[in-house]
Each structure stands twice: as C-alpha cells, then as structure tokens.
Design brief:
This protein has eight helices and nine strands. By secondary structure, it is of the alpha/beta class. It folds into two domains: about 110 residues, 2-Layer Sandwich (Beta-Lactamase); about 80 residues, Rossmann fold (3-Layer(aba) Sandwich). The longest helix is centred in the N-terminal third of the chain and has 15 residues. The protein starts with a helix and ends in a 9-residue tail after the last strand.
C-alpha cells in the first residue's frame, strides 16, 4: 500500500478528522486533511506540528495526546525513530482502538521506500573537501544538495575564499558551511564525529572540478 493509501485508511475511521506524517524536524511528508477544514486550520497546521513534536520530545515518550486549542478535538502523536505521525481525533473517539490502528500504520509507513528516502535525506549532511573553493565549485556543490535533497552541506578547504563565494554563501543561510582547515582529513573526521553525535548521517562526496580535487 502507498503512503497516501495508508493515510486514507486511517482517515476513513469514523473517530478521525485528519492525519499528518512528518519528520522529527517538522518537514511534512504527507497529509490527509478534510476538504471542509477551514483555511485557518490548514494554515495553522505547520505550527501545530511543531507543537506536537515539542510535546513528544519533552515527554520523552513514543506516544502522546494533546488537546487541539481551536476545537474540542484531540491530537494523538506517535513517534517512531525520525518519523512523527499525528492524528486528529474527535471528542468521542475510542483512544485505545485508534491507537492500535496508528501503531499498525506507522509500522507500515516506516517501511515505505518514499518515506525512508525522505528520512535519509532529511538527516544526512554532505561533506566535501577542496584545497581551494571557487564560485563555480560552490554552485556545483549547492546544486547537488538541492537535487539530492540533503539537509546541509559542509565544504572543507585549506585556503580562504573570495568575495564571490562569500556572497553565494550568504544566500544559502545555514544550509551550507565552509570550514577552513590546514589538515582537511583530520577536520573531516572531527566534524563527522560531532555531526553523528547529533543524530545525523554523514555522507562524503568527492567534488571533481577542472582543477582536480
């Protein structure tokens, strides 16, 4: 069954008013919200997801309940690794019965290749090493990040970069970082250890330019 099919199955329960699948960082993967939901409800969804994620993280639990501030409904939130599945329950919902359905749905969703790919991208940081960074090298690296959907990229280089690269770096916000280090291999190992300690996966990419590595 597809991701949408699993969500539709949950949504078909009479006690359920909608459901959202997202990563633990708040990126929405898929959602099934009733068409009759107000624009305000739809617009506030992202903020609601952030609140739900904070709730499960604060409690340190894999399953939690949260009242919906705008209605008499409740949210049931299931955490499984880096997956968050939030389900809106009507006031008369049989919580324990719906929980069984949610457990089964999350187990199926975690095995879906599309979900696994998004999770892998969302929590992967790309690292490359270049002795000197030119603007075309930087743009090539950014393009690869964008195409592959990686969360962040780090370029380790031995030499200071010029104003053209600096300008492009500012445009990327926190998504790309350039680290200057004399011993690039040693710095990469240090960064990898630090990043992995935060729960991310590190992938190394050899960026080939017309000047070589």
């Amino acid at each position: 069954m597809s991701v949408r099919g699993i969500l539709l199955e949950i949504n078909s329960l009479s006690e359920v008013g909608g459901c959202v699948l997202c990563t633990s960082s708040g990126r929405i993967i898929a959602k099934e919200i009733p068409r009759y939901a107000s624009e305000h409800q739809k617009g506030a969804l992202s903020q609601k997801i952030v609140e739900l994620i904070r709730l499960v993280q604060k409690r340190g639990e894999d399953f939690a309940e949260m009242p919906d501030a705008d209605t008499t409904d409740r949210w049931a939130v299931k955490r499984y690794g880096n997956i968050i599945f939030a389900v809106l329950l009507y006031p008369d919902a049989d919580f324990h019965l719906v929980k069984l359905h949610i457990d089964l749905a999350v187990d199926s969703l975690s095995k879906e290749k599309d979900v696994q790919k998004i999770i892998a991208q969302e929590f992967t940081i790309l690292i490359t090493e270049l002795k000197e960074v030119h603007v075309l090298d930087f743009l090539q690296f950014v393009d690869h990040l964008r195409r592959e959907g990686f969360r962040k990229g780090i370029i380790i280089t031995q030499r200071p970069y010029d104003d053209k690269v600096r300008g492009q770096l500012l445009n990327q916000g926190n998504r790309v970082e350039i680290v200057i280090a004399e011993h690039m291999k040693k710095e990469r190992k240090k960064l990898t250890k630090s990043v992995e300690a935060q729960g991310y996966v590190v992938k190394r990419k050899a960026l080939v330019t017309d000047r070589g590595m």
